[in-house]
Amino acid sequence: MKIKTRLTKKSKIKEVDFDNLEFGVDFSDHMYYVDFADGAWKEPRIEPYGPMKMYPALSTLHYGQAVFEGLKAFLGVDGKVRLFRPDKNHERYNMSCERMCIPTLSWELWFEGMKKLIEVDREWIPGKRGCSLYIRPFIFATDNFLGVRVSYTYRFMIITSPVGAYYKEGLNPVKLITSGEFVRAVRGGLGAVKTPANYAASLYPGEVAKKKGFTQVLWLDGIENRYIEEVGTMNIMFVIDGTIVTPPLEGSILPGVTRNSVISLAKHWGVPVEERKITIDEVMAEAKSGRLQEVFGTGTAAVISPVGWIQHNDDMVTIHSGEIGPMSQKLYDEITAMQYGEKPDPFGWCITL
Ligand SMILES: *Cc1c(COP(=O)(O)O)cnc(C)c1O
User: Fold this and answer.
1) pTM, 2 dp
2) Where would you tag: which of 203, 218, 259, 348 has the fewest CB atoms within 10 A of its CB?
């Protein structure tokens, strides 16, 4: 595939402090994009990262027709660059596009562009363990039109950003509070789609939670306000008496690639996994009975994020003494070891560039 490429004359890499990377702050020198118009994808391009021209009536700004993805490139101990399950992200991306009435993208336009972009910005992949090049593919509607209808034109883009650990706390456990009066998504809505609207819905409740001293919101279902859903940027898992329990994919939660990987890995190890509905009451009761051993979130950004505390109504439980548990640690170690090429990858998850 031919990609029209215009490289920057002046790299910004010297301006970046690679020893103190924060999530999503710095961007590599280039961006990849492909426009869709007249019912077809136009010529793919790589250009210097920079501002774009747009009209005030850009339909995405008004009606939110957009989809994004998130994955990472790792510099391995063998000097090779690895992507973790980019095929899964592509599959989910296209599913999201269908729900959002956005034209889907071929594997070639997705992957060849990503590969070339990483190639031209290869120096931007941090070498330090735990750091990586975060890859953000996204698409948005570009019609210059204010009527409510599906857009005719789109821009698909990939930008990349060198990142350190997602949470400043690192693998330190986070504090969650249940969603209370707020709802993120309901079945039939957009909860299973990686679209900005889900984040727009979650920002205000997230701010309320932060003011109360919590890291994130633990979303309960939008109808009965009882069943655990996810954490908004992560899926969630509970280790109860040696079994991993996680809510099923029934349309209101995001089908995480990390969630899928953790389930496969745990089963591979012989750890029982149950994808089933679980209520907040069960979680609180099992925490008090002592059978709730660990709770952790799963997502590309943090991989595994241990949960140390859950607040529900006026009740707060502490999990594993507020410290990371052995299952969370083992899953984190195993997945990151595959990503950095330190251990064999029995599932063939990593694509080496
Ligand atoms: C992206 C995302 C996740 C995690 O998915 P991964 O593929 O594991 O990164 C979980 N929940 C929501 C709402 C998300 O947007």
Assistant:
1) 0.96
2) 348
